[in-house]
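Bug #77: duplicate submission created two jobs. Keeping one. Sequence:
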Amino acid sequence: MGGVKIGGDAPVAVQSMTCTDTRDVKATVAQIKALEHAGCELVRVAVPDQEAAQALTSIKKQIRVPLIADIHFNQRLALEVIKNGVDGIRINPGNISPLKLRDVVKAAKSRGVAIRIGINAGSLDKELSARYGGPTPEALVESALKSIALFEEMDFTAIKVSLKSSDVCTTINACRRFSARSDYPLHLGVTEAGTLVNAAIKSAIGIGALLSEGIGDTIRVSVTGDPVSEAGIAYGILRALNIRKVGPDIISCPTCGRCEIDLFRLVRTVENELAGMKGYLKIALMGCVVNGPGEAAEADIGIAGGKGSGMLFKKGRIVRKINEEDFVPVLIQEIRQMLESDIS
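Kept job's structure:
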C-alpha cells in the first residue's frame, strides 16, 4: 500500500487516523506530518462528503506517508478518492450494497488501490446480526468471508481485513477464527477504546494477545484525543513482544522513599527530547544510585539519580558521575553518539 509491504514476512506496520476536518487541508496535512514524525507508516482520513474527497488531491501532494480514505455508505465518494490518487481505501461492507461495492472494486483494481474490508460490530449486516443473535465473533468472520468471496469473484485480492469490536474478547476471538480460515493480511485494533489509559490497556491486551500468537499485519491503537499518542503505544506493544525494535524503550522505576530526584520530570523531559527517534535503545531512568544500575543491567544506557548528582551507566556498569542539572543534556548526547556509532 503506497510502498509499504503488508502481510507475509513484512514488519507489522503502525497506522493511525487523523481527527481533523479533512476539508481543512492545512490542518490535516499538519497532523499527518506529526503522525509521520511519531512513526506512523500508514495514515487514514475520514471522507464524509465530496469536498473532503476533493481535498485529498492537495493533501496527497504534501505528504510522504501512504494515504488511506475512510468511506461509509457512499460508493460515489470511494470512486472519487480512488480517482484522486489515494493509496488505499477502507470500506465497511455492512453499509454499502453488494452491487455498489462492485463498482468500487472495479475502480480500485484499475488504479492499483488496495482495499481494507472493515468489519465492525457496531455496523454489522442486519441479517447476520439477527441470525447470530448479535455481533458475535462468528458473525464478524462470516461477514468478512462473504465480502472476500465477492472480491475474489472479481479477481481482486489486494485486500486487508479488520474485525473490530469495542469488546476486547470479541475482537480477539473474531481475529483468531478468521486467521484460521484465511491468509489475507489482518489489521488489528480495539475500536472505540476510549481515552489514553483505557485505550492503552485495551489495545495492549487485545492487539498484544493476537500478535503474540503470530496474528496481525498492521495495527492501530484507537485513542480518544490526539492521535499522535497512538503511535507511541503501538510501538510500545511491538517492543514489549520483541516484534519490532523501533524508537526508545524507556524503563523507569515507580520511585519510593529512597528517591531524591524529580524522576517524573526527568522521564517526561527525556521522552520529549527523544520524540520521533527511530533508532532503538533501551534507556533506564532510575531514582536510586545504590540499586539503579543493577536493577536496569539489561539497559543500553541509563542514569541512576541521587541527591544533586547521579551515575551514568551502560549495560549495568557505571561510566561516570554527573550533576543533576546535566542529566538530560549528557544522556541525550550519549544516546545520539551510540546511535550514530551503530549506523556507521
